[in-house]
Amino acid sequence: MRLNVRDICGQDIISRDAGLKFRKVLLSNWKNKSIEIELGDQVIGSASFFDEAIALLIKREKKSIQEITKKLKFVDITNEDKKILNYVLMARISENEIK
Predict the structure, then answer these.
(1) What SS3 class is residue 45?
(2) pLDDT digit string (tens) for 70-93?
């Protein structure tokens, strides 16, 4: 299964609203063994988008980081976006451990 962020979110690929829209599509496809996420080789550069779309899977959907990293494959993520994604994931993991 491959999901294209631009196809799902249109021109808005930075807001929390776009992230929520993408997370809902992810969850509706969660039964698939793996999900490839295509960003289109462009920088999203938005912690808000990545937090809402991916990192909140930990807090709101009770997914483990192991489950997320095993299932989701970012096929063309830039180094800049990888750093942002890792940052928001670590923040949600830390938040989850504190509770």
Answers:
(1) coil
(2) 999 999 999 999 999 999 999 999
| pTM listed for this prediction | 0.95
Taking the C-alpha atoms of residue 68 and residue 52, their distance in angstroms, rounded to an integer, is: 14
Taking the CB of residue 35, how many other CB atoms lie within 10 A of it?
A: 17
Q: Specify the length of the chain in residues.
A: 99
CA distance 67 to 41: 25
20 contacts 57 by C-beta, under 8 angstroms: no
Distance CA 55, CA 87 (A): 9
Element (H, E) at 36: strand 35-38
Question: What is the per-residue DSSP string for 56-98?
Answer: HHHHTS---HHHHHHHEEESS--HHHHHHHHHHHHHHHHHHHH
